Amino acid sequence: MNNIRHRKNYIIKDVIRAGLFVLIIILFFSCNAPQNNPLDPENPDNNLGTIQGVVQTFSLPFTGIPDVSIYWPKANKLVKSDANGKFVIKKILPEGKKEVAFEEFNLRHGVY
Question: What is the pTM (predicted TM-score) of this model?
């Protein structure tokens, strides 16, 4: 008699575990949260911007300067220019006056 009761308890626990597992799987796959966060890159209405440019010598011939650090302080983003002096800073919030700091070659900052 005790053995039958013990077996029923195991069966009930297994059914509850299986039910919880199925419920978790259903909840996981049915959850489709809206992407309305303005900082979410998947949000179709996000207002994130991009800054791109070229760091080049001041005199002729204008040649790109590689490995210059470009810093966007409002988003704390640091990128380096490529071999041709080109750089891209992605996923930034456009806000007011744009100021970029250049670390090398005594190029303090430019305003865009």
Answer: 0.51
